[in-house]
Amino acid sequence: MRNRSRLLLLMMMLCAAVFGQAKADEKAYQQYFDEYMNIRESSPASALNDLFFAQVLAEKMQSANKLGEVFFHKGYVYRRLGIYHLAMKNYINALSVFEKSANNDRHAWVLLEIANLYRDQKNNTKLAIDYYHKAITAFEKLNSDIGVIVARYCLGELFQNVSQYQKALTEFNLAKDLCKKIKNTHHEAICLWYLGHTNILKNDSASARLFFEELLTLSKKNNDIDASARAYKGMAELAELRHQPNDIIIYYLKALERYGVLNDQLNLTETLDKIAASYFQQGASTNAIKYEEEALEKAEKNKLIQLQKQILLQLSAYYEEKGLIVKANKALRTYIDIQSKEESKSAELIQKEYDVDLLKKDQQFKEEKIQKQNVVIVITVVVIVLFVVLLLVILFKNRSLNDAYQHLFKSGIELNKKKQELIEIKSTTKYTGSTLNDEKQIDLMNAFTQLMKDEKLYLENDLNLDNVAKRMNTNRTYLSQVINDQFGSNFSNLINEYRVREAQVILRDPANKIYTIEAIALKVGFNSKSTFNQVFKKITGLTPSVFMDMEESKNEGSDLSI
Known about the structure:
mainly alpha
């Protein structure tokens, strides 16, 4: 009773330790992932470090969905950084993980991201289109209308980029119609903006204006500030097409006001840059510099690196136009410094992805590991105790089982002896007229035995009496008589005995536990598992599985005695 209580206590300690560790890993993973989400737009390279640690924990927890999410987001960051081969590597990993875990929703979104990646590379249009269609099909099977809408306007953007404007308009219209059907005004607004923008690229200002006006009406109806900002941004682009400089600035300022309300720092910065460019085109370089400097300040504050580089180049040109050569050179030097740091960071990330073993990164968890050492020791002791108890239980149960097996084995041997005696009686009457004397029989018997030993013909599954007789330069009648007289058996049974002996050797070796019974049957010359089982039991009195269990029990017993 006392031992049982101790065992229960140890098991409870083990469960508590394992559960506590799992909760700690889960919490650490979430912290790294949350930190990544907070900085991925402003500092993608730093965000990758958090994803590396999250990946280590996801693998440790053996969580397919968490690991898939890490790969997915690593692909996203690498894509943003323009390191396309690493982005693709991680997307493919995510695709594989989600496919194995049957997470069809995330699988569909990864297909879409791969399509976007091919689109970004510009020289893989056909592959991008193929993956967009795969993503659309996957979303349709899931009845995910939002997924279909996003995939369609992403495909439309691809057609827009390669100047296939009619195809782009078709995709945007399909997406818009689906938005109306499910009454999703947010994505409908995006589709209207794409439709207007595509018509601008087509130089169809009348159609573009209709879509932007529809977008503006939709934004007022739903009090959608984001849609309103898109509408005014579109109207500014339309004014650019119509060469209406004053309207360009008016509409961009309206868009700027709404992005300010939304606190959308990315679009705020981009719009300030657009306003500066408009002023510069009008020859108002002072105003251009004012808005571009404000855009640069926001880009620096929010760590919008790509925009910061673009603005620095523009600002350098504006300073030069104004005759501010020192400022122009300073802006250009800052651009070069940022570009150099980015290139260095990219190289560092590639090195980290390919050459650094993820387990080495786990060194940063050393302090946590030291604190958990006592828990690990307890777990190890508990596991050892449980293992010993399990072995003792197995040993006790197998003693009675071994006795039964031994009895069956002896009974099988006795039965086999009786069968051999009957065979010998039959053999004495069958070959009474044979001219084969005893000396020749002995020679043939030795030759047969040696042949089986040297060449192991019995392993051939199509072996027959004629084949062996031919190999021994004798005839089948003499060989059959020798087998009957000297071995007390017939050809088929004798060959099967050889095969069974070979099988017993294999089954006794613990290293062969990796093989199935069927594999062993084929290996020793039988054509099927059922025939092997039947013959093995006939000869030994046991099935192959029982024989193997007995051998394992013997091995375990000998190990314990040692």
